[in-house]
Design brief:
The protein has a three-stranded mixed sheet with strand order 1-3-2. The protein has two domains: 3-157, no CATH class; 173-504, Neurolysin, domain 3 (Orthogonal Bundle), CATH 1.10.1370. A hairpin with a 2-residue loop joins strand 2 (242-246) and strand 3. The protein has helices at residues 3-33, 40-58, 61-69, 85-101, 106-128, 132-153, 159-167, 173-195, 211-225, 261-279, 296-310, 314-327, 337-344, 358-377, 385-397, 423-442, 446-451, 456-465, 475-483, 490-504, and strands at residues 234-236, 242-246, 249-254. 63% of the residues lie in helices and 3% in strands. The protein is built from 20 helices and three strands. The longest helix has 31 residues, at 3-33. By secondary structure, it is mainly alpha-helical. The relative contact order is 0.11. The protein binds cobalt (II) ion. The site of cobalt (II) ion has 4 residues, from helix 10 and helix 11.
């Protein structure tokens, strides 16, 4: 058959799968934002049905046959070398996804999806009631499903490596541990030095802020950063997230804590960073398996770059302060951009990952990375988690939760079986600073643009260097292409150590 016709058929299958995926994303988005509590059970069944339809469509013998006709096999996933580069990248991604998905039995996929929905609902209740015991059987079942996924897919090294591969291709336990060890040592040392210094005054941000006022400001903030609100929206959820419901429908959420205005501000900036990536995926990749970020870690590099490297810089606050004063009249009259800058760079190890400062954040991740390895290998029993959690928190961060809600139950990830996801957050910090180094040398006067609230040069640079690739490259290939380097912990640590030495006068 004509190769173009074959490609057309394969693209049609891919397109249908993406449509099913985004339909499921809409149901998920609703589940996290507006679904009444008793709607959860049937919603889990709806999601499981969509998951099965996706699986059946994607793994039909036709997909395998079309891939083979185009020369794409496991050992040569990019297929026929006469095809255009874009099509070869498409084939590589399709082949990799197909090889994984086809190994999963249909009844396994459906039962995993249903169990995930129920587990997540159980976690919400358990967290609300500080009742780890009620969540434990679900957690055990999620660990069991995760192991089975990895065994079906196959892996090199350990079972956990098979799970890491979905979120961060070519980045196994050993590669991650080799960057996490220096990260842990140098961040812990820095935290100790900072702890000996006086704390900045943050009281002007921590007293009673009406959620409606926060909502008004966050809506302005989105636009200030350059979010096209005709292609997305901002809602509220317990855990802020970004989701792609369509090529022109990319939504973010935030949350409003009346005693912590910064929480909503930085959640919004973080999710905008994710959304900008998705919004500027090139049109030619829309509705295909390449219309995505290179990996979870690369995605996180984008959100954390906006949130921290840009969002916690002095030029950024010079630009934002007038807008904040306008939207929240009377509250910040005597507060300067410099005061905000000091307050948003408070370093204080705390219990909750999502509220953590830039310095201690990665330590939260390293703790989870170590526990996950033990859970998947079986060296740690799920029932031991609360006490191990407390022990490690004390050791790495010097703080200890009084209850499991603020401890082991704080994150949603394990409740839906996403073991192997956490390392991406800390890898994102590392990738982000490597990208930023290049961006800074490519954009003279970057800080002036930032202080004037002009983010076009940043958007353009990210489009030209990162977004344009979608999911065509693996994370290490993208990093090499943009920076000429391999993964390195140095740019991040140098940035952190220099910045906080100046902030705290070390
Ligand atoms: Co994120």
């Amino acid at each position: 058959m004509d190769k173009n016709k074959t490609l057309e058929k394969l693209h049609a299958i891919d397109r249908e799968c993406r449509l099913l995926e985004r339909t499921a994303s809409l149901l998920h988005w609703d589940l996290e934002t507006y679904l009444p509590p008793l709607g959860v059970e049937e919603r889990s069944e709806q999601l499981a049905l969509l998951e099965s339809l996706y699986h059946e469509r994607f793994t039909s013998p036709e997909t395998g046959k079309l891939l083979e006709e185009l020369g794409s096999v496991t050992d040569n996933p990019r297929g026929d070398d006469k095809l255009p580069e874009l099509e070869r990248d498409f084939l590589k991604r399709m082949r990799k996804n197909y090889d994984k998905e086809v190994k999963l039995p249909l009844d396994f996929v459906a039962s995993a999806a249903k169990a995930q929905g129920l587990s997540q609902a159980a976690w919400v209740e358990a967290k609300r009631n500080n009742n780890f015991a009620a969540f434990l059987p679900h957690l055990e079942s999620m660990i069991d499903f995760a192991r089975k996924y990895s065994l079906y897919w196959g892996f090199e090294g350990r079972v956990y490596d098979g799970l890491l591969d979905i979120f961060e291709p070519n980045m196994g336990v050993q590669a991650i541990a080799s960057v996490f060890t220096p990260l842990r040592e140098r961040l812990s040392a820095l935290i100790k030095k900072i702890a000996a210094k006086p704390e900045p005054d943050c009281s002007f941000l921590q007293s009673d802020f009406d959620p409606q006022i926060q909502a008004k400001f966050n809506a302005e903030l989105m636009k200030y950063l350059g979010y096209d609100t005709k292609r997305g929206r901002l809602d509220v959820s317990a855990h802020p997230f970004t989701t792609t419901l369509g090529s022109n429908d990319i939504r973010i959420t935030t949350r409003y804590l009346s005693d912590n205005f910064l929480s909503s501000i930085f959640s919004t900036i973080h999710e905008c960073g994710h959304a900008f990536y998705e919004l500027d995926i090139p049109k030619e990749l829309h509705l295909s398996c390449l219309a995505d970020g290179a990996s979870m870690g690369i995605h996180e590099s984008q959100s954390r770059l906006w949130e921290n490297v840009i969002g916690r810089s002095l030029p950024f606050w010079e630009g934002l302060t007038p807008l904040l004063k306008k939207c929240v009249p009377g509250r910040f009259d005597s507060v300067s951009a410099k005061d905000f800058y000091r307050a948003v760079n408070l370093v204080k190890p705390s219990l909750i990952r999502v509220e953590a400062d830039e310095v201690s954040y990665s330590l939260h991740i390293i703790l989870r990375f170590e526990l996950e390895q033990g859970l998947i290998s079986g060296e740690i029993k799920a029932g031991e988690l609360p006490s191990l959690w407390r022990k490690k928190m004390k050791e790495y961060l010097g703080v200890e939760p009084e209850n499991d809600t603020e401890g082991v139950l704080q994150d949603v990830h394990w409740s839906h079986g996403s073991f192997g996801y956490f390392p991406s957050y800390a890898l994102g910090n590392l990738y982000g600073l490597q990208f930023f180094g290049r961006m800074k040398s490519d954009i003279p006067g970057l800080e002036d643009f930032t202080s004037k609230g002009n983010f076009s040069p940043v958007h353009d640079w990210l489009k030209d260097n990162i977004y344009k690739w979608g999911k065509r490259l693996d994370p290490c290939e993208l990093l090499k292409k943009v920076t000429g380097e391999n993964l390195s912990v140095e740019p991040f640590l140098k940035y952190i150590e220099e910045k906080y030495a100046a902030v705290y006068g070390l």
